[in-house]
TrEMBL record, chain A:
PROSITE patterns: G_TR_1 (PS00301), G_TR_2 (PS51722). GO terms for molecular function: ATP binding; GTP binding; GTPase activity; sulfate adenylyltransferase (ATP) activity. This is sulfate adenylyltransferase. NCBIfam families: CysN. Coiled coil: none annotated.
UniProtKB/TrEMBL annotation, chain B:
Keywords: ATP-binding, Nucleotide-binding, Nucleotidyltransferase, Transferase. It comes from Kribbella turkmenica. Its EC number is 2.7.7.4. Residues 287-310 are annotated as: Disordered. SUPFAM superfamilies: Adenine nucleotide alpha hydrolases-like (SSF52402). This is Sulfate adenylyltransferase subunit 2. Residues 40-263 form the Phosphoadenosine phosphosulphate reductase domain. GO terms for biological process: sulfate assimilation. One of its GO terms (molecular function) is sulfate adenylyltransferase (ATP) activity. Belongs to the PAPS reductase family. CysD subfamily.
Length: 434, 310
């Protein structure tokens, strides 16, 4: 049975990300004839085209916006879908330009694997460090280092080994456990899907082999139950569902089973699970069927044994492992806005299904990309990664991000124009996320 | 360079688990919108993607009904089977249907017929007027990222300004499964619950859930003529020009849009299971095979979307 793998690409401008993605899709036969014809036509019309039928810019397979094609850069994430015999992939092709780092954070937030490209001629650059930091911070399970344009350094093993060592050192500092380095040439196709004859010194998997065998999302079904309530269903119809009251949501972690003792936060009231329902719809009928349990990732409807106050924003948790609630958070944030963050800023926080007012009470420092240490900072600018403290107007049922990516993450939102200001990850008790 | 699909079974490997994951993600999106918006609406054309979208919406709120109205932007160039399906569905489920009619706009002069006869690009203004008129704040569309280059760039929650415009260079970051639906008065949010579904996923799901579709999605005989590599039906909105010969062929529709610019494909697939096999082996994308309006320029869809199109 195949499983879905979500990938994101990262790397500096001109490292060849879009070319690599185009190559991967093409060599996996995920590009269809009309798309190929389109790229051939556009490439052949460019100044400098050879015009002999061999012009083919792989990047055009993913750079879909007019401005991207004109400037030859990726501005926003492009999502692509492909499958091999072994599994299906959702790929987020992210921009390299520092100005668009927020889009890289977007792509990496849902990724199981981040592919970080480094140009073999240039080695580790500031964006490499930034993207590694983002991958580490978001706790992406696997990082692949693709040392690209290996053909342009004469397939030199020493160049590859040197870059792999630099990146491994950084990964150690950032607490990234799993980094695998592969020498590739996206343009030529070395070690992307086909093994290269030029890199006999490399005996690891090709990029596709690696991706086909990587373990997917961390299975959180064995962790304590967290079930943020999205919406309450009360049909109030004159049929068997007259008194139905169901709490909808997606199981964030753990397993919910009928009869489980649970606590509803923030009230802290104890009750138990009376039923778990999934929809059964036909052309003309709409009903639900009971299930014994549901696991992390499933969207279901839960009924409770007692008639207590439960609404959107409530979180149903395992009675024996409640996180409690908090109004003060220590967190690490990626600042995604052109407007700098300053102490005292009033923002909205969106955490699971709760949106509340919040005040940034303290900025504890920012990540210095050169040393990967935390330095003093009076504010945070676009693309900065910093440590902050927040006071929140409503109690939040929150966990550290390291133990739960869903109840441990949040957005900060500008209350005036609605812009997403920051991606936040709640620190461990010791505050050692960085 | 050739594009051969030498292992269609690879693409057939979509499993129950993957479909369940996609279903859960879409259901989650519907519930977020129901909870956070005042006046959502589902764009419903009677095409397969909007039908799957409505099916998912029903799942999200069962055993209660769908708490949204439907909106059909009607080009006036409809397949009769699709209109009949629409009306049957609305009646069976007790839904409210709003119709924004391109035909009316043309009749009273607010829009003018294009020289190429296609009405797909003309849908934008009636759509935006309907959104403003009904004060819809969240508008569900069946667009999928695998359909087209500009759509590949879409967020699941995608902000439109007070003119209905999309600014693809300045989209909000969309992290984890935290969807930010904040918007100012006059702005609205387009929501795409099928963002991560592929054409093949949609067909696998139609097969698994036994979702009825308008009959034109399956093989049938029809008088067609060939234009720009597409098979167009002979009908009130598309007639062969000189030199175009009409033949009776066994075809089906892979997409359903304005009759004047939606092509059929030669096919004998008469069930969802047979369509799955056909789609998995196809060497053309669904839009490449069937949509004349996307061939106008390199960025035809981006340009339409920027102006407020679906």
């Amino acid at each position: 049975m195949s499983t879905l793998l979500r990938l994101a690409t990262a790397g500096s401008v001109d490292d060849g990300k879009s070319t690599l993605v185009g190559r991967l899709l093409h060599d996996c036969k995920a590009i269809l004839a009309d798309q190929i014809a389109h790229v051939q036509t556009v490439t052949a019309q460019r100044p400098g085209a050879r015009g002999d039928g061999t012009d083919f810019d792989f990047a055009l397979l993913t750079d879909g916006l007019r401005a991207e094609r004109e400037q030859g850069i990726t501005i926003d994430v492009a999502y692509r879908y492909f499958a091999t015999d072994k599994r299906s992939f959702i790929l987020a092709d992210c921009p390299g330009h520092v100005q668009y780092t927020r889009n890289t954070v977007t792509g990496a937030s849902t990724a199981d694997v981040v592919i970080i490209l480094v140009d073999a001629r240039h080695g580790v650059l500031e964006q490499t460090r930034r993207h590694l930091a983002v991958a580490g911070l978001l706790r992406v399970p696997h990082v692949v280092l693709a040392v690209n344009k290996i053909d342009l350094v004469g397939y030199d093993e020493a160049v590859f080994t040197g870059i792999a060592k630099d990146v491994n050192d950084l990964a150690d500092q950032l607490g990234i456990a799993d980094v695998h380095a592969i020498p590739v040439s996206a343009l030529v196709g070395d070690n992307v899907v086909e093994r290269s004859a030029e890199t006999a010194w490399y005996d690891g998997p090709t990029l596709l082999e690696y991706l086909e065998n990587a373990t997917g999302r961390t299975d959180t079904s064995q962790q304590p139950l967290r079930f943020p309530v999205q919406y309450v269903i009360r049909p109030q119809t004159d049929d068997e569902y007259r008194d139905y009251r169901g709490y909808t949501g997606t199981v964030a972690s753990g397993t919910v089973s009928v009869g489980d003792p649970v606590v509803v936060l923030p009230s802290g009231r104890r009750t138990s699970v009376a039923g778990i329902d999934k929809a059964v719809v036909t052309a003309t009928s709409t009903a639900v069927a009971e299930r014994p349990s549901a696991v992390a990732g499933e969207a279901v409807t839960v009924r409770l044994a007692d008639d207590i106050d439960v609404a959107r924003g409530s979180v149903i948790v395992a009675a024996e492992a409640s996180p409690g609630t908090r109004r003060e958070l220590a967190a690490t944030v990626c600042w995604l806005s052109d407007r700098p963050l300053t102490v005292g800023a009033r923002v909205l926080i969106k955490h699971t299904t709760t949106t509340a007012q919040a005040i940034v009470t303290k900025i504890n420092g920012a990540l210095d990309l050169d040393t990967l240490g935390v330095i003093d900072a009076a504010g945070l600018d676009l693309n900065d990664i910093g440590k902050v403290q927040l006071k929140v107007a409503a109690p939040l049922a929150a966990d550290p991000y390291s133990s739960n990516a869903i109840t441990g993450s949040f957005l900060l939102i500008d209350a005036h124009d609605g812009w997403t200001l920051a991606a936040g990850m709640i620190d461990d008790e010791e505050g050692e996320l960085l | 360079m050739t594009a051969t699909i030498d292992a269609p079974e690879a693409a057939l490997n979509t499993t129950v688990t993957e479909l369940d994951a996609l279903e859960s993600e879409s259901v989650h999106v519907f519930r977020e919108v129901a909870a956070e918006f005042e006046r959502p609406v589902i764009l419903f054309s009677g095409g397969k993607d909007s039908i799957v979208m409505l099916h998912l919406a029903r799942k999200a709120f069962a055993p209660a009904g769908v708490p949204f109205a439907l909106l059909h932007v009607d080009t006036g160039h409809n397949f009769p089977e699709v209109l009949a399906y629409r009306d049957r569905t609305v009646a069976a489920l007790g839904l409210r249907l709003e119709v924004a009619s391109v035909e009316e706009y043309i009749a009273d002069g607010r829009l003018r017929e294009r020289s190429d006869g296609t009405r797909n690009p003309l849908q934008t203004i009636p759509l935006l007027d309907a959104i403003n008129g009904h004060r819809f704040d969240a508008v569900f569309g069946g667009g999928r990222r695998d359909e087209e280059r500009a759509r590949a760039k879409e967020r699941i929650f995608s902000l439109r300004d007070e003119f209905g415009q999309w600014d693809p260079r300045n989209q909000r970051p969309e992290l984890w499964s935290l969807y930010n639906g904040k918007h100012r008065p006059g702005e609205h949010v387009r929501v795409f619950p099928l963002s991560n579904w592929t054409e093949l996923d949609v067909w696998h799901y139609i097969e698994r859930e036994q979702i009825p579709l308008p009959s034109i999605y399956y093989a049938h005989e029809r008088d067609v003529f060939e234009r720009d590599g597409m098979l167009l039906a002979v009908g009130p909105y598309s007639q062969p020009r000189d030199g175009e010969t009409v033949t009776r062929r066994v075809v089906r529709y892979r997409t359903v849009g304005d009759m004047s610019c939606t092509g059929a494909v030669a096919s004998t697939a008469s069930s969802a299971a047979e369509v799955v096999v056909e789609v998995a082996a196809s060497e053309l994308t669904e839009r490449g095979a069937t949509r004349a309006d996307d061939r106008v320029s390199e960025a035809a869809m981006e340009d339409r979307k920027r102006e407020g199109y679906f």
